[in-house]
Amino acid sequence: MTSLTIGIEFITGRCVAADVSDRERAEWPPHPGRMFMALAAACFEMGEEEAEVAALEWLEKLPPPQIFASDGCERSPVAVYVPVNDKVTANKSLLQSAPGLSRSKQERAFPTMIPDNMEVAFVWPDASGAESHIEALQRVCANVIRVGHSSSLVRAWATLDAPAASGSPWHPTRGVSQISVRVAGEGEFARLRVACGANRIDSFMTLAEIISSTKGNEQKSAKKAFEAEFGQPYKTALRPPEPTPPVLGLWQGYTRESTEIVVLEGEHFDAELLVLCKLDGPNVSTQDTLALTRRLRDAAMAACELQPPPAWLSGHELDGSATQEPHAAFLALPYVGGPYADGHVMGLAIALPKRIASEDRGRVLRGLLFDENDESRIIELKLGNLGVWTVRLEADNAGRQTLQNVTWVGPNTTWASVTPVVLDRFPKQSRTENRVGWNAEVAETIVLSCERAGLPQPIQVEIDTTSWHRGVPRAVPKTRRLRERADGERAAPLGDGYPTMPSRVGKPSRPQVHVRMKFDQAVRGPVIIGAGRFLGYGLFKPLRVHR
Predict the structure, then answer these.
(1) How far is Cα 482 from Cα 470, in angstroms, rounded to an integer?
(2) Every domain of the chain and the residues it spans
């Protein structure tokens, strides 16, 4: 069995590359598809020699490789302002060296990862035929100067030896994945050649040279050929066609089992969420979580082929009493945590109990998720004054970070709430008279809530009315006092806040807070705790740490 390794070393000590699903985050580990695009670019620069082209067309047909990459730390986002192309128009920002030209500056971000080990290896354990292509691959690798941004300089090589990179590898998987990465598929090299547009650029320059240096019939023939190829008459002011930004549409799930990091699993909920993507409908804030999750639960109950629905879906036994076993939780997935996060809901999800067999899940949820042709069903949710939403189960949400499973299940050691945690019990201490005691009692309640939700005990609990994730409203609406008014109003809303979880008639609403929790070991979610966890309150998201 022949093994192939393509390695890269980040010689500047950092990898500057944006995650295509979130341009504010750094891509790590580097995607195999990004490495293939760097190889293809080097091959184009080398003139597309026959051996090199054959090697890359052979490489694209191999299955996704293993990725050996160390952990690292993502640099905090830094906004910089860079000049864009010159424009011969009036502008306040004139160039001192050329007053006739103007140049404006636009905000740009360059997400950067600082890895612990600068070497990354892509390994194909079974690469039959690698011997006949290794020399060509080595020549191409020798001409690769960057992977990612132009400042992300690398040294690349190809070998038939085992990788020198240390650490546990990322393996491609068809099961539950921790990350989704872009990979090259069959025909990728030809698609990149078309996107690069090298042939059209060469043809443009050749015809322009003939037109400018000849006369008579030869020039007429060249102009006619130019118009036929580029769809417009030749003019000296025309510029060569611009290359199309390369795009890879094939994604692959990866997972890594590390002996160095122990990942703790929650006992109640399966780590694979059923994610429903929003197709149409008005923008809805995460403050309207309860409206969304209730309608989704109603739709699931109505579409269930078993009536009455089982307790693991409804949360109630046949006699109407609340079940004591874990049951399905209905969640809203908002865009939060990013620099431009605004908290609007991008989709919904259903977290299912681990104990339920896949056959039983399919029997109960098939009517909701699939039509008679086993195609994903479009689910209509009527939200009253909020309008109508349509959602659908989609297998590929790789381009939308909020709708990726790994965004909500981690694993991670630090988690912060996205929707407020509704306390399982009322604190005995007074929040106004003894704030320290109240906080300590609430922290104890949060620890007990983790146990009730089948999660390990956190080693640190912090409480606030404001979330640690950007774009998340306050845990409760905040008001400000008003002077006495004729209509009797004494308070007015101040900013956004989640509505309180409805309580039983005659009972006060339970306190709800935002929480940040830290565990002594990495925990795989979903992390959902508190009295409102089955309707989307108490949902947590991993909290990323920047350097």
Answers:
(1) 29
(2) 4-75+111-194+246-255, 79-108, 265-542
